[in-house]
From TrEMBL, chain A:
<feature type="binding site">
    <location>
        <position position="202"/>
    </location>
    <ligand>
        <name>FAD</name>
    </ligand>
</feature>
<feature type="binding site">
    <location>
        <begin position="241"/>
        <end position="245"/>
    </location>
    <ligand>
        <name>FAD</name>
    </ligand>
</feature>
<dbReference type="Pfam" id="PF00766">
    <property type="entry name" value="ETF_alpha"/>
</dbReference>
<dbReference type="InterPro" id="IPR014729">
    <property type="entry name" value="Rossmann-like_a/b/a_fold"/>
</dbReference>
<feature type="binding site">
    <location>
        <begin position="227"/>
        <end position="228"/>
    </location>
    <ligand>
        <name>FAD</name>
    </ligand>
</feature>
<keyword id="KW-0274">FAD</keyword>
<comment type="subunit">
    <text>Heterodimer of an alpha and a beta subunit.</text>
</comment>
<dbReference type="InterPro" id="IPR001308">
    <property type="entry name" value="ETF_a/FixB"/>
</dbReference>
<keyword id="KW-0285">Flavoprotein</keyword>
Automatic annotation (TrEMBL), chain B:
<dbReference type="Pfam" id="PF01012">
    <property type="entry name" value="ETF"/>
</dbReference>
<dbReference type="InterPro" id="IPR033948">
    <property type="entry name" value="ETF_beta_N"/>
</dbReference>
<keyword id="KW-0249">Electron transport</keyword>
<comment type="similarity">
    <text>Belongs to the ETF beta-subunit/FixA family.</text>
</comment>
<feature type="domain" description="Electron transfer flavoprotein alpha/beta-subunit N-terminal">
    <location>
        <begin position="23"/>
        <end position="211"/>
    </location>
</feature>
<dbReference type="GO" id="GO:0046395">
    <property type="term" value="P:carboxylic acid catabolic process"/>
</dbReference>
<comment type="function">
    <text>The electron transfer flavoprotein serves as a specific electron acceptor for other dehydrogenases. It transfers the electrons to the main respiratory chain via ETF-ubiquinone oxidoreductase (ETF dehydrogenase).</text>
</comment>
<comment type="subunit">
    <text>Heterodimer of an alpha and a beta subunit.</text>
</comment>
<keyword id="KW-0813">Transport</keyword>
Amino acid sequence: MSILVVAEHDNASLISGTLSTLAAAKIIGGDITVLVAGENAGSVVTEAQALEGVSKVLVADNAALADGLAENIGNLVSSIAGNYSHVLTPASNFGKNFMPRVAAKLDVMQVSDIVEVVSADTFVRPIYAGNALMTVKSNDTVKLITVRSTAFDAVEATGGSAAVEDLAFSDVFAGSSFISRDVTLSERPELGTAKIVVSGGRGVGSKENFAVIEGLAEKLNAAVGASRAAVDLGYAPNDCQVGQTGKVVAPEIYFAIAISGAIQHQAGMSESKIIVAINKDADAPIFNIADYGIVGDLFDVVPELMEVL
Amino acid sequence: MKVLVAVKRVVDYNVRIRVKSDGTGVDKDNVVMSMNPFDENSLEEAMQMKEADVASEVIAVSIGDEKSEDTLRSAFAMGADRAILIKTDVELEPLAIAKLLAKVVEQESPQVAILGKQAIDDDSNQTGQMLSAMLGWSQGTFASNAEHVDGAINLTRETDAGLETIKITLPAVITTDLRLNTPRLPKLPAIMKAKKKPIETHEADSFGIDLAPRLEVVSVAAPAERAAGIIVANAAELVEKLKEAEAL
Ligand SMILES: Cc1cc2nc3c(=O)[nH]c(=O)nc-3n(C[C@H](O)[C@H](O)[C@H](O)COP(=O)(O)OP(=O)(O)OC[C@H]3O[C@@H](n4cnc5c(N)ncnc54)[C@H](O)[C@@H]3O)c2cc1C
């Protein structure tokens, strides 16, 4: 078997989901090639070469590939996908955006968001916000797969010494262009990979009050997360949303503060190792899945917590 | 210009689903069904395009069994001008759905097709992107804002790092995120009128497309349940417990 992993990166460094995707590729087994599609992404190529288990790094360097536009990445991947038994990429915004295009071009039914590799053609994926796990067998000749990063432990970033090969790209789609990016800057660890996540919900009450959540996160060197309600109300930026339609996280400790625990929120955090809930409503559903709960007002409990930490 | 909006009938988002004991799927008997929430955002966007004179006609399309008529009636109630049901009694995969939608696009020649970014039952997040690739149209996924300017759309997308704006020229496929707009609540007279509007119905297998599933469902299982833990009295006790568990 020969597997292509489409790397996610920002032209400067690899995004961690790529390492988890490689872990899934290793379980499938076979020769692994990594594709770095971008512009002036030399440092990413160097990183990819060093990854454990990678035998080749394909590099497509083109201004049209710089910003992850789905039409261009999709065209590029479609042009080579037929050479592989599997094409994998993270089930991130990047992967979700282009991979179905490859599926349409190859007339293949993609397997989205896998959490387990059963065998080279059989995979487990969550459906209904994770309330059911479906095992599917793909009969397509090329298997197109997006991988849920939290379900696979990242491969080692060192130890490999893959060869590099250039890949030409000219099939630029004229209808779409990149205009601007508004990236949320944070000194906190990345939400998807942080050891501890501190999330706030609607009960936090305002953007100003959200500083309480950020304060605790800072103290714990944790990432900041939020419920959809908190994002909708503008307390936190959209990239903080945890849940069925946001990010999936699985840290060592997840703090759900003033979050009721709707199914859609649970979908993004129920795989966390330890869940701590702080909520003034003793009947909030979040307590049904929390390992440790404190029934109380967050504005009393969090300052107390800051003191004893 | 015409706008095509795809709408799907799904188990309502408030329902906690149950996996069938024989592991063949999810129990859908006697559960509340409703329009996929993202599709309400799609319809709202189309209606706003019409109100801004960007669009002239909003066509809702649903692919499913007869009961998807209910979903199309909800689309009428929100303001859709026409409704098309592509009838099938088997569950189709995103690839087949996209192929059928491409056929409808061929017949109706809209300039914009709006789909939800995902359906909350299957959570595949594929159909819009597939449709865009099949048609060779521009793609704007996970939209949280769309501004129409001279045959193009400045589309703001929600990404893992924040927001990004791209410019896509028409024709285009848009997939909606929940923060794109607030779907309107249909008024009672509109709901009443919607009951009488005609729905154009076509059989899915009349399009000459191979609709056979590519993925074989081996089993559907319930995830391991998380047991409820303990309530601790205060912050000090919490920290103690976390230290005992060697988490801190
Ligand atoms: C299609 C769809 C997709 C969705 N996707 C997501 C998703 O990805 N992520 C997500 O989170 N949601 C998602 N939702 C929304 C979800 O259904 C809930 O509405 C949302 O999670 C609720 O957020 P919340 O818990 O912050 O607010 P609420 O449910 O309003 O809960 C607020 C909680 O705060 C507590 N509280 C209030 N004040 C205090 C205080 N001072 N101290 C302590 N506790 C306090 C209350 O007791 C309550 O339990 C989705 C919904 C739909 C329909």
